[in-house]
């Protein structure tokens, strides 16, 4: 695949540090970072801008461009080799966003062209889970050649590194396991199917499991003062040892492990990396998840490593910057 925007050829071959801008486009906020990328060490965030975003902001593409331009202003523009943006959904190899549940206003928009025109810097747009996979690849280096990055947010995304390369598929849409059906009689999914994995194993799924625990009288300490249930508060309660929250996280981790186990059987990765807002739960998620994977007779013996992506909430922006430098490979 050749990048349509003429990325400078020295960006990949040079051993020198490069600067790149990475933008993580979320449903409620845009996180943009100026990142120093040195092939020999971990990427370093030099500047960070956070602005609120709205799903139906028709001007979102230009606001992303403004944020990128602001970051570029403070730096030596000639030293910035690329601008990358990552978002949930389907991004075409030509830089046009085809489907974006968090930012429907971007659908049909050539976001890469908008960024490039606003900044004069080569631009790249990609799926946010692919960006997280890039961070994991940069963290572990070439020793890890097969990894699965899963983003657990409102839905589920995946970035798949197979034999050292990001798996793109025919149109660039590979890695959408959130819509693998795990129960054909399960709850309806906005995609039109029933029982998609992300109905159970996303942040939305976590909150539904907690709500069900409350409905069945097993929810002591799960809901806030106004009976609201927020996934991050459930995982926080689990960290404090609240029994109902621990039980919900264990059930949730079982659902995450079910889909991850399917992916492990399919791709045989050495490493599974978790990103997205729900990954911030940390060990209250990863420990029961690894226990579930280990108890699976086909998956357990492989001893797959499971970890939360480096950089936590900044991983999406850092990964988008890495993507801008590395391109589609
Ligand atoms: Zn679905």
Bound molecules: zinc ion
Beta-strand content: 15-25%
The portion of residues assigned to helices is: 25-40%
- SSE sequence, one letter per element: HEEEHEEEHEHEEEHHHHEHEH
Largest sheet: 5 strands, mixed
Q: Classify the secondary structure makeup into a structural class.
A: alpha/beta
Helical stretch tally = 10
- Biggest sheet strand order reads 3-2-1-4-7
Please, what is the average pLDDT? 90
Low-confidence runs of at least 5 consecutive residues? 1-14
**What is the C-alpha radius of gyration, as a whole number of Å?**
20 Å
What's the total number of strands?
Answer: 12
Distance between the termini: 8 Å
What characteristic shape results from the CA principal axes?
globular
> What multimeric state do the chains show?
single chain
Q: Could you walk me through the main structural features you see in this protein, from its secondary elements to its overall organization?
A:
- It is a single chain.
- The protein is an alpha/beta fold.
- Helices cover 35% and strands 21% of the residues.
- It has 10 helices and 12 strands.
- It has a 5-stranded mixed β-sheet. The chain has a 5-stranded mixed β-sheet with strand order 10-9-8-11-12, sandwiched between helices. A two-stranded antiparallel ribbon has the order 5-6.
- β11, α9 and β12 form a beta-alpha-beta unit.
- α4 packs across α10 and α7 crosses α8.
- The longest helix has 25 residues.
- It is globular.
- The N terminus is likely disordered.
- Bound molecules: zinc ion.
